[in-house]
Write a structure and sequence with these properties.
disordered C terminus, 5-stranded antiparallel β-sheet, elongated, alpha+beta
Amino acid sequence: MSRVVNGVGTWHYGRANVCERYGPCPVCHSAGVLASYDTGRYAVLFYIPVLPLGRLRITDHCAACGHSQAQSLRFWRAERQALFADLRARYRRDRHNVGLVRQIQQACVIYRQHDVFANIAPETLRRFAGNAEIAATIGDGYGALGMLEQAEDAYDQALALAVSTAVLERLAIVQIRLLKPQEAAASLAHLLEKPTPEALPLLAMLARGYQAVGDHSAALEIFDLCLVAQPSLDQDADFAYFQSVSRQLLETKRPLSDPAVTTTGARGAPDPASRIAPLVPLLILTVLLGLYAAVSVNMAKRHTIWLVNGLAKPYTVTIAGKNQRLPPFQAVALTVPEDVYQVTAEVPSIQELTVDCRRSFWQRPISSSRLVINPDQAAVLTRQVAQYSESGVRFAEPTFSVGRSTYTFTGVHRMFEPFPETLRLSESGTAKVVALRLEPDLFGLPEGEWRAVAAVAANRRLAHDLRDEEAAVLLSQRLRGEPGPALEAALLAEPPSLTLHQAFHQIALERPDVMAWYQQATAELADGPQAALIQARLLPPDAAAELLAEHADASVQARLQLANYHNACSYFQTVIASLPAAPADEATAISLLTAHMSEARGPAPEKIARSLRERFPDSLQLRLMGMQLAPRKLDQVASEKNALVAAHQAYFQGDRIAFMKLVFALPEPDPDLMFAAALSAGALQRARDVLGKNPLPEQLLLLYLLHQDERGRAVALDQLKDCYQQDPSRSHLLPILDGTGLAPHLDTLAYGLAESAALCLLVAEKYPELAIDARARAERLSWLKNYPHLTIRALLEKAR
């Protein structure tokens, strides 16, 4: 059964081999035209056929109620072929069988076989020329199939052999359809003389035949005879309608079309839709393929690729005739036509690349692949999946890629963009986001990824940039043997890096074999103040002082660091004495004050601090250092312009309670900062209140570690277990929580992290000049890597 709802469903299109007859519907019993035809069944979208579902044979479709008998056209034709093959075989064997002739006539009418009946009927009439019954049967077949002239001749032949009222009545029906109502009236003379209720259908059809030729006066006479036969007809609405129409048209002689008369049962012309409908799906497919091809061609002209710089310095690359500047540790999207390109960079150590940006023509519009080009092969690309739900966000373990020039990623939703804070969930209450990001911080990589990822990235970065201190320091800290070519080149580069040599020297102190190599390497450095500072670390204090005396232009900060390293008070006093009394810039002033404050060495630090603050009144660093030397009451500090400075002063003086109060009194305090401040003050209940409904596992772990009473620890531990059970990536930590050796070796770590995170957050955003230097941050992140279940990287990332 075909059905369409809101323009979508199945429907019939096209009509072929149409045969119509007038008769009563077997379901609604209303008289009307019943049509039989071949049609196609289609899946429709907005009433447009898009997919053929097969061919059907519809039998006796009623226009009034829509009822019909539907059968597969293939099965219908198979049944017809089998039936007629059997009838033909039997007819050849016995051509004088009257019953067989009737079966053939009925089969031709049922299956609407006009051609078959037209071939058999004349021969049958000749063979049974003296049989009136056969002639009437042939006339019935002709009449049912719409061959009315042949039907009239057959009935005349039957009546010539034997007069029958039944044959006369069937002849009258044919004559009415041939628009010969006068001849039909002669055939129905026996009914017109004595009309009976049983004759009403024929009389009514005769009257409508007169209406069809415009003889309304004769039609009214027949209607009057019908009333004589059955007076109650005047109550029938249809009868009254036809009678009133004839009265209205009595003077006009206008014919009245009536399907009861005009429907002959002949084969109708095929519906044009029967030829067009099968072509519609092909046309739609052609249009869709054309649109798909147009989209694919357009995408080929505008292919977006990403160029990634994995170095700490910018450089320019040339691709497709375009020069693109790549900032350090950033990705830049570039739109180019799909082709094979040569990629060159201005850095001599980066080799020329041949990149094929072409994609499959048919897969291009539906492909989710993303091409990333990293000419320096030093970028660490991190692909991570985040699962969003009503309970929060769960991050899967990231996967890292490094050491290649080109990458192809599929299924990535956010290219070099952070995860969204909120996301619309699906009906199931979840949503998945896949993000690709560039990892510039090699110290932040997990410990297990060092050999596979960080070492490759650090060596690549040093191969292209010997001044990349972060990569060199990282290689120094992870040194397993003698330095590799990249690290060795960085150590011997001119001018030398004090930061790198300081870090490498710490490693060499624990490795005699490395120290021997390092002493030999530093001896080859070119003479200069930087080389002198590096070589002085390898000498005794007196020899170091003598060496530096030859290089008075060495930086103040480096000389002070060297003095502290040797712990030589006499040399320290010598350095202080060499500092200018009236420094020309703020950096030198800060170094001077730092030197005087160190272990109370030097004359009158408070007096020097006061004079320096007067010389540099806008220096916040000198101002806060002066507060340390001359502490004031907190209420005086709090009344100053910036409440954040007051909180910093409270923290600087070690007053954790005041520090917490000032943080909570800030106009818009950060929840993580409030939590860290409460922890540093030991106010665990206030810290718990800050967490809210969705605490981080790291925050719960800190509460567990810092609680002194058993009840508080038990509550925090239960919450922590619930949090870990909901996160499959942390389920392996549950046995550790149940053990007894967790707290002793992590208490100090947790407390220190809370305090350092709070300090970083205080100063980083508003006062970048007070932030902890990059190397200290890197060391802190490296420290955290050993404790993946106690990661406060979120706090530290904010401070960066």
